[in-house]
Amino acid sequence: MTNDLPANLPEMTVIGPDTKIKGEMFFEKSARILGSFEGKITAQGEVQVGAGAQCNAAVEAERVIVDGRVNGPITARDRLTLTANAQVQGDLTAGTLVVAEGASFVGHCNVGPHAADLSKTNAHRQAVHSEPKPNAPVTTAGVDITPPWARNNAGAA
Fold first, then answer.
1. Percentages helix, strand, coil for the chain, rounded to the nearest 5?
2. Which are the contacts of 115, defined by CB distance < 8 A and separation ≥ 6?
């Protein structure tokens, strides 16, 4: 049997709209998520979060296109695109960031050719300097600095 697909068509795994997955997925090529996913997604190529998709996940790939919902950090080594339908809650790290009018984003951005390296350095620096000293009180001066996606609803009024 011969392969009738064009040679330039990238290989893409599709997670259908009626599919719910929980765990960790790794793709050697690219993936298109149309259903629900919870966990971690890593791809060597591109990850597309399609319209209507819901991802409560960390996403890391060469390129990421969000047209649905993502709750969690996104790392795009090359390019991250948020379409007009995108709804993202989580920190973004990307070589290039494209945000369409109408996209929704809550979190921090690290953008540029060295963003991933700087993000790792800053995270390490914050972890080292934020360790509480024994018996020292931890205060936030009455300000809740917890990101919205990390808060539980138990304390909600």
1. 15, 45, 40
2. 93, 94, 95
Q: Token digits for 74?
A: 């996104």
* Number of structural domains the chain divides into: 1
- Residue 87 resides in a domain: yes
Give the residue numbers spanning the domain of 84. 9-113
Average pLDDT, rounded, for the chain: 81
Tokens representing 36 are: 């629900």
DSSP for 66-99? ESSEEES-EEEEEEEEE-TT-EEES-EEEEEEEE
17 within domain boundaries: yes
Handedness of CA 24, 43, 122, 153 (dihedral sign): negative
Considering the entire predicted model, what is its pTM? Answer: 0.71
First to last CA, the chain: 63
